[in-house]
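Reviewer 2 asked us to include a model.

Predict the structure of this chain.
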Amino acid sequence: MTRTGWRDYAWRLIHAGPQQPVLHMALDEVLTDEVAAGRRPPTLRMWEWPTSAVVIGRFQSLRNEVDMDAARRYGIDVVRRISGGGAMFMEPGNIITYSIYAPEALVAGMSFQESYAFLDAWVLDALKALGINAWYQPLNDIASPSGKIAGAAQTRRRGAVLHHVTMAYDIDATRMLQVLRIGREKLSDKATQSAAKRVDPLRSQTGLPRAEIIQRMLATFRELHGLQADVLSPHELALAQALATTKFSTPGWTAAIP
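Predicted model (structure tokens):
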């Protein structure tokens, strides 16, 4: 497979209003497959959340990652995505999440590590323009001298690559540690006192509103690679809504690995 470049494609942007966690999971699958089939141009999608959620990786154990009693107590949805990687704690207004859907030719011949760095290079440029000394930290993190900023996950299927990233704008460390089991272990191992010492949010590093950071990120992507506003087609939305019901909201998927 011959490798292509960013500018070989007419990139589209989807940035809709808040959508339910199960619909976000379904949209990742649908849009990846639509790009693979050539029915949709390569796309950058910014996510918005109406409620708090925990998103676990495709190959993670639900029991090992999430305290379900705490999740129910706080009314936090728990969903499983189609990509690998670790659990993410999502809160409306406190995180920035985006997905890239592209033909696999864009990362042809790259290892997963190389493709992580390649697909997040534009974000590093955006963060540096905001005054943050950020770098790619293998395998799938974006870090700064003050702490981790973001974590990425990826999958390749049917000739397309799905790459998504969750960035900490702000953080409710107390609630996160009550819901995520793995967070407690990591913090204990590092002998730290709070999650804020491990994850340093963009709010504290920039002092900027979340919306402004997103706009600056999109401006950087547009300048480097080109980007035109787009919306989900009725067909794409219908496919995602069906998948959200028949797959991503079912115990058989969420607890596929108990």
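Residues 35 and 41 are 6 Å apart (CA to CA). The longest strand covers residues 147-157. We have added this to the supplementary material.
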